[in-house]
Amino acid sequence: MAMFKGAKFMAKKVEQNNQVNWIAPMVGALFFFYAFIQCNMLNPLHGALQAYFQLDTAQLGILGAFYFYGNVIFLIPAGLLLDRLAIHKIFFIGMVLGIVGAIIFAFSTNIYVAAFGRFLSGMMMAWGLIACLKLASLWLKPTQMALASSLVVSIGMVGGIVSQAPIAYITEKFSWQISVSIVALIGILIFSVLSLIVRAPTSETNDRKARNSIVDSLLLVAKNPINWLASFFICFLNIPVAIFGALFGAGFLTVFHQVSSFEASSIVSMLFLGMILGSPFFGWLAQKLNNMYLTIFIGTTLCAALLISVLFPVSSVTLYALFFFIGFTSGAQVLGYPVITRNNTADISGTAMSLGAIIIMGVGYGLGLPFFGKLIDMLTVHFASAKTAYFYVVMSFFLLVALSQFLSTMLYFYEKKETKRPA
Question: In this model, does residue 100 exceed pLDDT 90?
Answer without folding.
Answer: yes
